[in-house]
Design goal:
β1 and β2 form a beta hairpin. By secondary structure, the protein is of the alpha+beta class. The longest helix has 41 residues.
Length: 179
């Protein structure tokens, strides 16, 4: 009886090993890209090349801040030599504790930091963290690819976890049955 159970367990471990190996090889490139870009994204606030440091404005008093239209207009003028227009605006992020607004363009990942009170341009820089994030989540190709690839990656990693645990536990159970 023990021999039959041992043989069955050994067969199961061999089967799981095949699944684990082929799935691991299939997902290796996705995991590698996700890991490297994840590390870079974790450091984006600490490395100026990845994301420009946030500047400080004159005041944090919101009642003195200029309207959003003026912030956008000043930002577009700051990047007009790059061929960017108001149509390229992606978003405006306010930093109330810093007294600034970050105006981010969807073309080329450019960012303009503007003092929200004086409308002085404090910084014009490229945000490499944006395209790294798009590479990280697969949206650099398309939103459909992002959805499919992230599901495949997530499910694949769960299967690798389960098969890995069994590849660790199975031989221990076999040794225990044999002794």
């Amino acid at each position: 009886m023990k021999e039959k159970e041992t043989s069955k367990l050994a067969s199961s471990v061999r089967s799981y090993r095949k699944w684990h190996k082929y799935l691991g090889l299939s997902l290796a490139l996705f995991v590698l890209i996700s890991a490297i870009t994840g590390i870079l994204l974790a450091w984006k606030k600490n490395v100026d090349v990845l994301q420009p440091p946030t500047q400080k404005g004159e005041t944090t008093d919101l009642s003195n801040w200029k309207p959003v239209e003026e912030l956008a207009e000043v930002s577009v003028r700051a990047v007009d030599s790059l061929g960017l227009t108001a149509a390229n605006l992606d978003r405006i992020e306010y930093r109330p504790t810093k007294g600034i607004a970050k105006v981010i363009f969807d073309t080329g990942s450019w960012e303009v930091q503007v003092d929200a009170t004086t409308l002085q341009v404090l910084s014009v820089a490229k945000r490499h963290s944006d395209w790294i994030e798009h590479l990280h989540d697969g949206s650099i190709i398309s939103d459909g690819f992002k959805l499919i690839s992230m599901n495949i990656l997530g499910i694949g990693l769960l299967v690798l976890l389960i098969t890995g645990i069994w590849l660790w536990l199975g031989p221990r159970r076999i040794r225990k049955l044999k002794s």
